[in-house]
Design a protein that fits this description.
206 residues; mainly alpha; Regulatory protein RecX
Length: 206
Amino acid sequence: MDAEPGLERAPDDAPARAGRRRATRNRLAPATEPPTTGSAAVDAEADPEAVARTIVLRQLTAAPRSRHQLAEALARREVPEDVADRVLDRFTEVGLIDDAAYAEMLVRSRHAERGLSRRALTMELRRKGVSPEDSATALDQVGDDDEEQAARALVRKKLRATRGLDREVRMRRAYGALGRKGYGPGLVARLVREELAAEEDGTADD
């Protein structure tokens, strides 16, 4: 219908009004809303001590560890040092962290399963941050006779694996294998000579 004479139709300003409403909403809305779900929300709101306890429990569930190893794990996750100390102290008080027991377990298993010498065991305990006192007590489990018996077993195993090869080659491989386990060259040389002699006279243990 045509407009009445003398009256003009007002321009349609609906698009302009919609634009103004959107601008108002944008000004009122926060620039970035905090996460409400998922790991981001947990990290934003979690208590640092609760986070530290969770990390330590997961580490201990996976494998026995020294206090030093656990402290390193907390540092990698950027747990504040004072928080880490409090949590580790509490775990130590209740017996979940026990470096002396850990060292004894490590020495027993590494010596029995891998044939490591006391020298190699000492180095491994040092790498794991075990104190010299706890290390010394744990290493008392391995005496001279135990060490020689383990070394002799390794020599026999290596010589059996290299039968048919040149004598010098067999000796070098035996020296190398036991050297990597931390045994001294004097002990290794004596045991290799004895076991080769036993082979030659038919008294070697198979």
